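Hi L.,

You mentioned the student needs an example of a multi-chain input paired with its predicted structure. This one should do, with 499 residues in total across all chains.
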Amino acid sequence: MRRQTGHLDTDVLAEFRAGLITGRRRRAIAAHLTGCTRCTAADRQLAELSALLAAIPAPVMPDGVAQRLDAALAAEVEHKQEAERAVAHHSRNRRRPPRPARRPTLQLVMTRVLVPAAALVVLAAGGYGLSLIGGQSSSSSSATAGSAAEPAAASAAPSAAQANGLNAPSASGAAAYPSFQKSAALGLVPNGTDFLPATLKSQLEAALRAPAASRSAPHPSEPLGACVLRLSSGVRPGTLKLVESARYQGRPAIVIIVSSASGYVAWVVTVGWVAPGCSATSAGVLAVATLPGISAS
Amino acid sequence: MPGADGPPSDAELLRRHVAGDGEAFGELFRRHRDRLWAVALRTVGDPEEAGDAIQDAMISAFRRAGDFRGDSAVTTWLHRIVVNACLDRLRRKAARPAVSAGDEQAFEALVAHDSDPAKTTDTRLDVNAALQILPPQQRAALLVVDMLGFSVADAAIILDTSQGTVKSRCARARARLLPHVAHLRGNRSASESVSPAQGGDA
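Structure written out for the whole complex:
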């Protein structure tokens, strides 16, 4: 593996340094290194490379990812505890918990959300009674505010599978997405704001504070509802606060805000993001922001 | 049971999680998540994919905690799950490569983009970009051994392969990376010194 010049290949040097070359060959290389400045320099560079790599500090996990993981973990814990409660009297020594029922739950919620397309969407906003989506002439808006804040008992696999029909009994798995419990269709409300990266958080907070009355009726959109559900599935309580069409850096975008344990999580996505396969990490998510809780004002 | 004094060990947290403690796994994962994030980000080379991979890994570790037998450190086990999740993603992504491994032209473009004068002090960008020219398996080996400082024995567990394979992947990765990093560092003679961890050669 020596080159014609008689010098050592970097590959060979690297193997030599890693202790992969033994015996006579190792001795020959060591002997060569004592007398060859060029190969010695290459050898030293290899050592420096490892040192350079070791010296690079680890990147810190971005807040958005950390928050997402916390939310996903919280959901997982909830699923696990729910599953354990459900089977507690059958067996105390299950080998593995049932898989959380993400897909079935999504199905369940989708049928609830989207089938009665004519109805208006009224989403309970934690403690503030904001009803940002739809909001046209609903009667039941404020009534939902209290129940939506209850911690969601995420449905475990067995109950969700049964509840896949239209009129699922609300006893067991019904509260998986409290925000959608009383809602019907999900559509886009236009928002004239051009969101910009530098001012994103303050603009989002302003959007959250904007009076619901200024919003017009939504146009129900099935893919959008599915995507919003998927986006917010890892966030608890996950009450949907706002879905609006707006602009981001001058280009059409959709803003989605849901409540989280510590405030809100907001996503800005492209219009094209609303498609099968949409997720919190698929291409088209332009920005994710976390907002602290905003006191009612 | 330890824990009243001082923070519980990783193994203790994992045990509590398996026993049904709803807080234990979160505490364990948060304890290591920056390092795990570093592995994920550098292995897949893209924050979005890395976010997906680390979430997959976290959930997988959460569910499979009962399988942990204690024959390696908990961190080794966690790293193994993260690396697996990342390599899985890269395999799936291979059908739609953005920057195919070894594509020197794309690499040069990446470097040209990253090395504008305002950023020349940031070696991290350059090295992270350079890492992406490596095939995933080699990159993962180099990360685990050189960047995270795991022993070859632990790296073999994390990468689910033999120690010899870990060594040869690392060696090939270093040889392949060297010209690029030397070239990058040649562009800024001032930052030659990586003195703290220097040495190891005789």
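You could point out the following to them. Chain B touches chain A through 53 residues (CB under 8 Å). Residues 99-121, 187-202 of chain B have pLDDT under 50 and may be disordered.

Best wishes,
N.
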